[in-house]
Amino acid sequence: MLSMERSLELGNMTRVQEFILLGLSTSPETREVLFAVFLTLYLLTLLENASSPSLACSHTELHKPMYFFLGNLSCLEMCYVSVTMPSLLAGLWTGPYHVPFTACMTQLFFFITLICTECTLLASMACDRYVAICRPLHYLLLMRPQVCLGLAGTSWLGGLLVSVAKTACIASLSYCGPNVLNHFFCDVSPLLNLSCTHVALTELVDFLSAIVIFCGTLLVSLASYSAIGVTVLRMPSAAARRKAFSTCASHLVVVGIFYLAALFIYCRPSRIRSMDLNKLLSVVYTVATPMCNPVIYCLRNREVHAALLRTLRWT
């Protein structure tokens, strides 16, 4: 009887039709400066990430598994910033603004898809480096094109399936008001905070997916680099150790930054209370990481340097 009354009460409540995103700042003077800064960062990120796959496609010496995964990662980063950055810029341009419910859920769906895919891609890249350093004689066999395509395809498909489950759970919740999101895009934790129904099942799905995707791929990366570290320490030549370490250091830095920020926010079943800290960390992995990845991965690479110089000479 009580459950029936509860259902009738929820049915009589007005369902939220839109959300209000507060954005990064409410001060007009600060918003103008931040808008110029983040617009520049957005355009720079698109330019950097577009250059990596175009170089890999146009130069045969870059037709290697490592650059195949980097090309996938660059394409993902361009989609990634294009999902979150427009809403960030709109909030800086107009202040707090209204987002329809369907648009918010659509943004959430693509965001979850891309962040889960990135986790799996980073783990695939760690496995590629493990094979290259620990099993060099079998590298061409183990990382043949079919395997690389399979790893990349599994990464994208896995991210899509996880996103379908998580977004469906969050969209099925009742939102009766208030409808103000203290964030610059539609993210999981702020939406859970606004729900007027029990979110235990949704938080369980969120937690389990975090364990499988975030923790699972992190363990793969840690296991790969532990094996790489043992192999590098056993190398007799200091020059060989430096060369092996240089091929992995950039990936290790990116993995560390990404996982530290993402795991702090998502690998916990409870709702996040410190939303200002949440927004700050979200800027790290939605803005800073996509912008820095091409610089860390490619622009320090001699093969990419040579390909870039040849391209500039041709133009």
Automatic annotation (TrEMBL):
GO terms for molecular function: G protein-coupled receptor activity; olfactory receptor activity. GO terms for cellular component: plasma membrane. Pfam families: 7tm_4 (PF13853). Residues 36-297 form the G-protein coupled receptors family 1 profile domain. It comes from the Eukaryota. InterPro entries: GPCR_Rhodpsn, GPCR_Rhodpsn_7TM, Olfact_rcpt, Olfactory_GPCR1. The chain crosses the membrane at residues 33-55, 67-88, 108-127, 148-175, 207-233, 245-266. Keywords: Cell membrane, Disulfide bond, G-protein coupled receptor, Glycoprotein, Membrane, Olfaction, Receptor, Sensory transduction, Transducer, Transmembrane, Transmembrane helix. It is a multi-pass membrane protein. Gene3D superfamilies: Rhodopsin 7-helix transmembrane proteins. Its main location: membrane. It is found in: Cell membrane. Belongs to the G-protein coupled receptor 1 family. Putative odorant or sperm cell receptor. This is G-protein coupled receptors family 1 profile domain-containing protein. It comes from Bos mutus grunniens (Wild yak).
